Each structure stands twice: as C-alpha cells, then as structure tokens.
From TrEMBL:
<dbReference type="InterPro" id="IPR020904">
    <property type="entry name" value="Sc_DH/Rdtase_CS"/>
</dbReference>
<dbReference type="InterPro" id="IPR002347">
    <property type="entry name" value="SDR_fam"/>
</dbReference>
<dbReference type="InterPro" id="IPR036291">
    <property type="entry name" value="NAD(P)-bd_dom_sf"/>
</dbReference>
<comment type="similarity">
    <text>Belongs to the short-chain dehydrogenases/reductases (SDR) family.</text>
</comment>
<dbReference type="InterPro" id="IPR057326">
    <property type="entry name" value="KR_dom"/>
</dbReference>
<keyword id="KW-0560">Oxidoreductase</keyword>
<protein>
    <submittedName>
        <fullName>SDR family oxidoreductase</fullName>
    </submittedName>
</protein>
<dbReference type="Pfam" id="PF13561">
    <property type="entry name" value="adh_short_C2"/>
</dbReference>
<feature type="domain" description="Ketoreductase">
    <location>
        <begin position="13"/>
        <end position="194"/>
    </location>
</feature>
<dbReference type="GO" id="GO:0016616">
    <property type="term" value="F:oxidoreductase activity, acting on the CH-OH group of donors, NAD or NADP as acceptor"/>
</dbReference>
Length: 255
C-alpha cells in the first residue's frame, strides 16, 4: 500500500478495527499498519488472522495485535477494547468493519437468525463505540468509522435482514455524531459497492454478474479491498477534521 498518502497524525495512533482479519478488514488493517499506527483488530477466525499479523510483521517490521472475540458477545467486545487500550493506549480511531452478508430467503428467517444477523451487522457497532467513547473523550477527541453498504440503497432483495442492519448503521452514525461531536469525536460511515473479496469471489461473483455491475459503474474496473483503505484513512485522519455525520460512498460511481 505504498501508493496511499501518508497522514502524519496516524503514526503511533491507537487504532481498533473489527473484522480486521480478512476481506476489506484485512486491507484496512494493513493500511493503518503502513501508516505506523498501533493497530489492534478483532476477528473470530483465528488462523487467517494470525497469518495476516505475521505477514504484516514481515512486510512492515511491526505486527498488529490480534484479538479473538465473538462480536455477538458484548462482554467479549468490551474486554477486547480494554486489551487494545492496555497495549496501545486509549483508542483514538475505531473502525467498525465486521459484517456478515449472508443471503437469506424472506420465508426462512426466524427470530434467532434475525437477532444473530443484527448482532453481527449492527449491534456490535454500537457497543464498540460505547466502549471507546470515554477514552476518546478523555483524549480530547477521536474518529469512529462505521462500514455500511450500498446494498440497501439498491433495493437488493436477497438479504433483507442484512440490508436493514446496514441502513441502521447510517442512523447509528448520525446519532453518535450528534452525541459525541461536542467532545471532538467525529463519526462517519463508508458505503462500499461490490468489492471483490475472496468471500465474494468464492460465493457470488460470476462473469455475468460482474459484467452487469461494471456496466452500471462509471469506473470500469472491479473494486478491490485495498481501495477501501484510502477513504478510511482519510476519515480517520486530521485531514477530515471538519467532517462528521457523513456517508462516503465508494462504489465506483454506480449510484
């Protein structure tokens, strides 16, 4: 990620990323490590997360802190936040990236599935923000970045619980921005388009589907995970000091 700009204020910053072990999250983890930040990331998948940490150590000379936790467990989330703060200092940047974009039929969703989906895609973002807020207040400010999705803006019908949660992320972002802004804490959201993560390519990307998406995008290339790091670094940095309660759409110009 040497082609990304350097933000001096991110060097040494204490950064926490949820779902940082794979996909877009891994690109975000690398992006902040490349800035020289003190990065911790939460992920439930242990093997790929430890592999990523080792790879980044070899590439940059310092490794992110991997924290294994189930984001549906609020106590585990709080414990992970505390561990990250003990190791790296009070968290100044929180990136709520973790998501579960499982496809589901309307008739197949029961209360248990709905609650699990919302817990992964929406609820954890509130409780991680709650857990870092007091430390950010004590530090005089910070930046929270919540990842939403363009899927709910496109009337995609294959995952109604997921799209409901991702719409909720925007409401949460604006509510937190209003609540935390007086303490110098900025809260923004990023809405990626269809990003070609390994998960997407393994499960849902077909030549026809990709061509249809590229036909609708104004930028005629398949979006890659690393392309989400630039917007996130910008919103985390002092370069975005006047920006809060906003949604940055990074979809190749589809919308």
């Amino acid at each position: 990620m040497t082609d990304l700009p350097t933000y001096p204020d991110l060097k040494g910053a204490s950064v926490l990323i949820t779902g940082g072990g794979s996909g877009i999250g891994a690109a975000l983890t690398e992006g902040f490590v490349a800035q020289g930040a003190q990065v911790a990331f939460i992920d439930i998948a242990e093997e790929p997360s430890r592999r990523l940490a080792a790879e980044l150590h070899d590439r940059y000379g310092h490794a992110p802190l991997y924290l294994k936790a189930d984001l549906t467990d609020v106590d585990a989330v709080r414990a992970a936040v505390d561990e990250a703060a003990r190791d790296h200092g009070l968290i100044s940047v929180l990136v709520n990236n973790a998501a579960w974009d499982d496809r589901h039929e309307l008739t197949d969703v029961d209360a248990g599935y709905w609650d699990k989906n919302q817990a992964i895609n929406l609820r954890h973002a509130f409780f991680t923000a709650q857990a870092v807020a007091e430390g950010m207040k004590a530090s005089g400010g910070g930046s929270i970045i919540n990842f939403t999705s363009t899927s709910f803006m496109l009337n995609i019908g294959e995952m109604p619980s997921y799209t409901a949660a991702k719409a909720g992320i925007i409401g949460l972002t604006k509510g937190l921005a209003g609540k935390l802004g007086p303490f110098g804490i900025r809260v923004n959201a990023i809405a990626p388009g269809w990003v070609m993560t390994d998960r997407q390519k393994q499960l849902w990307v077909t030549e026809d589907a990709l061509n249809e998406m590229l036909e609708r995008q104004t930028l005629k290339h398949a979006l890659q995970p690393a392309e989400m790091a630039g917007p996130c670094l910008f919103l985390a940095s002092n370069a975005a000091s006047a920006i809060s309660a906003q949604v940055l759409i990074a979809d190749g110009g589809l919308l």
